[in-house]
Structure formats: C-alpha cells, structure tokens
Amino acid sequence: MTSHESQFWDATRSSVLNWLRMRLSLTIANDLAVRRALEAAGVMFIDENGGAGPGVRLRKPQRKVD
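RESULT FIELD:
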C-alpha cells in the first residue's frame, strides 16, 4: 500500500467512525457509497417487516460449484 493509499484509508476510517459516533452527517453520495461497500462485503439491508423494524444481516456464503 502506498503512502497516499494509507492516508486515504486513514481519512475514510476516521470519517466513518465520526459518522457512527454521530459527529458527522454523510452526504447522499457518501451514504450510498458506504451502503454499496457493505453490500459488496456481504451485508444485506432488511426492510421493516411485521413490526420488527429494519435491520441488517450477513448474506450466506455461496458454495463454489466444481
């Protein structure tokens, strides 16, 4: 990892932590980018169903077919 990449990830990590601590609000574009990154990592966003409220869960790993 280059120094520039390291600085980028440090800044990104800092921004996400500040957002999680409710010290920072995300723009719509950043909100969408975070959601897409989480979905690419296997997180599923669940709509409210039956009064249980919205939530998240991890997608089941796909088995490789030989």
